[in-house]
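::Amino acid chain::
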Amino acid sequence: MQAYRRRKINKLARMGKGQLRIVAAAAIITVTTVSCFPITAQATGRTSAQVQTDINAKNKEIKEAQAKLGAINSKLQGIESDAAVIKAELDDLKDAVYSIMEDIESREIQIEETRALIAEKEEEVEGIRAEYEEALETEKQRRDDMQKRMRAMYERGDDNTLALIFSGKGIYDILNRLGLAQKVYDYDREKLDEYKQTREVLEEIRIGLEEEEASLKEEEATLNAEIADLENEKSELEESMEPLREKSAEFDALVKSAKQEASVAATLLSQEQAQLQALQDQKQKALEAEAAAARQAQLAAQAAAGGTGTVSAGGGGAAPTINATSWDAVIDASPGSDLGKQIAKYGCQFIGCPYVHGGRSLTNGTDCSGFTMLVYQQFGYSLSPSSSMQATQGREISVSEIEPGDILVYPGHVALYIGGGYVVHASTPASGIKTNGMYYRQPTSVRRIL
């Protein structure tokens, strides 16, 4: 554990602020203000080709804005990843400090328990010592008494023996008196030995208790030394956490700055898309005006030639008169595969046909997912009739990669991209199959089926 902590501290010490400055410099991305065209919702008298020029320029600006936003988000992810590493290192150090604190607490508890045992041993030693002193005093007293009796018998010598003989009333009485003196001596000697053995046992117990007490004190000293080492290690870890806290705060500031830049870039991109939609609406009006002028010219030419005729606008269950020529030019001018352009042109043939929920006819009526399914079916591709399922088919691409024939996914809706920033789709029961600028609603993804 300690070796691991030492390696971590050394690693953190080698990480300087220079690395953060590099990350900070890399994270600074300049977001320029979008240019604006003089766009109005009404027709401006400009031709559809002129408006298309502005649309192409606006599409280019949108791609640049998307690229800038992507770069900012990429840098943001990098900063957040580095910040996560620092925070993980900081969390590891905090865990190590907590672990040390737990170890210190555990040893402090052991010290308290050891001190309690030492107190018990000291009390036992004092008790044994008191018993020992009492036994020693008793032994001494017994020894003194015995020595006094022996000295008295010795000093009297044979006179004592003679006294015992002459004072006896007979041989049996004499023997009895001599035996009593021996018994007194043996009893004194036996008791003396008993007190001596008791004293020796108490001495052994005292020595054992003192040894245990000394061992406990050594254990206490060892625990105190371990606590001191742990306190030092804790201090080192806490010191190593300071530069990490500073780095973490710097990264938090970088993340906040990058998120602000991303928010500004996203707002500018949204403005660009709104301007593109306005241009697309303007072009739609210009196309409608040009188509109306062409019909008027056709009627005038027929009248001048003396002919008669009408131009059908379509209605009921019949397919309307279709003029897809103007969209062919838009599709051909867009980058993409030939097959994708063929699919887009085929879909445009049904502009003006009705919208029917759950319908499965391009001419008599279908819904949004039915429209894209039937168009792709014509080219040998099988799509789900569900818009939510179509949102998962093929592969997802970015908006900047979109080409004619791709499917734009909106919330609860799908449409076929035809180029120039436009889609053709089965819109609503009121409007049927029609074209719109691709940003008439905010798309959620783009699916490439081819």
Notes: The longest helix spans residues 171-304.
